[in-house]
Amino acid sequence: MNTNNNFSIESSNSYSRALYELSSENKCLDLIENQAVSLVKLIFESEDFNQLIKNPTIKYNDQINIINIISEKFKFDDLLKKFLNFLIFKRRLFYLKKILNDFLNICSNKRGEIQAKLTVAKELNSSEIERIKNQLNDTFGTNIKINYLYNPNLIGGLIIQVGSVMVDTSIKNKLQKIENKMVEV
User: Fold this and answer.
1) 133 in Cβ contact with 117 (< 8 Å)
2) Which residue among 43, 63, 140, 166 is buried most deeply as judged by most CB within 10 Å?
């Protein structure tokens, strides 16, 4: 089991780097990055698309046809379309989510960005997210890329994680601390 897990991590990293290098060489990196973001969003939003990716019993030709239809609908660049078909040919479509996320991280790292995870209890608009991003940029002295998540289970407040630094001001966390103190007494 561990060997398979290592293989999947190593192979998905290789595919991610290959997509980055191909996109860079063909001078379409920004376009492919934007389309990869759309594809990751589709993975999160569509259960049917998830089944296409994760179900090994779907025939090769059916996967190719569906990916070609999706590529046409989203107007994917030929490079991305060929890359997706190559993953199907190599029976690696199962790793698509990880490959695309690694690819997006490579793009972000090459721009010198640091990844930050922002989890909030109430939905924020783009100007509020931008204000938080600017404050983080000033604090860390570098460009921060925010992955924004809305989680009403936090009750109130927010959680920001930049690398190993985490700030948790959520009400859920405060209640947990109070509960822990009560149990200790």
Assistant:
1) no
2) 63
- Does residue 32 carry a pLDDT above 60? yes
Q: Give me the domain span that covers residue 171.
A: 114-184
**pTM greater than 0.85 (yes/no):** no
Claim to verify: residue 99 and residue 159 sit in the same structural domain: no
142 shares a domain with 89: no
- For the stretch 146-161, pLDDT in tens is 888 888 888 888 899 8
Quick check: helix, strand or coil at residue 157? coil
Please determine, for residue 164, whether its predicted confidence score (pLDDT) is greater than 80.
no
Q: How many H helices and E strands in the chain?
A: 8, 4
Helices 47-54 and 60-73, axial angle in degrees (round to 10)? 140
